[in-house]
Amino acid sequence: MLNIKNLRQEYSLHRLDEDNVESSPFLQFKVWFEEALQAQLAAEPNAMTLATTDERGFPSARIVLLKEVDEKGFVFFTNYESRKGQNIVQNNQAALLFFWAELQRQVRLEGKIEKITAAESQAYFQSRPRGSQLSAWLSPQSKIVESRNWLEKRQEEVEKEFEGTEKLPLPPFWGGYRLIPTYFEFWQGRPSRLHDRIAYQKNETEAQNNSWEIVRLAP
Asked: Could you give the domains of the chain?
C-alpha cells in the first residue's frame, strides 16, 4: 500500500496580505503570472484545470492552456463537440484553477463561459503550428475511436486533403471560449497550514458592478 498520509511539505516562501494586493483581481493575477514566468517553472505556467458539469450536475475536470487574459476574461481553445464543449452547452458556469507548486501558490476562479468570435478563433487557429491545425481537423475529440492506427490513418487522409495549404481554414467545430470571472481566490502556502487566502468577490449592485470586494478566508 502507498504510504501517502505522511507526505507533507512546509510552506514558507511568501505571504499574502489584504493591504498589499492589487485592487483589481486581474492585476493581481498579472503580478503572480509574471512571477511564475520569471521563476521558469518546469511545467507550463499557463496550464490550468477547467472544471465543468453536465446537465445532471456531474463534474468533469481536465487541464487546458490559457491563451489570452485581460479584463474581459480568460480564453482557452478546444473542440466545441468535446465533452467539455458539451458540458458548457448544458451549464455555462465553470471554474478554473492554476497551481504553481514551486511558488506554493494557487489561483481559483469561478464564472460564466461564452464563445469568443469566429474571427478571433480563426486568428489564433492559423497562428498555431501546422501539425496542431491538422490535429484539430482530424480528431473527433472525446469520442471513442477504434485504435491509434485509426487516428494515424485519419491523419494521413487530412494531410492529403490539405496538401499545399499552410494555413488551414478554421474547423466549424473548433474555437475559443472565454471565462468571465465573478470570483477569484489567491492562495499562498504558509507555515503550519495557516495559509493566506484572499478572495475577490464581484459586487452585484448596479452602481458597483465593476468593483470587487476583497476579503480574507480562513485556511
From this structure: 18-126+172-217 (2.30.110.10), 129-169 (no CATH)
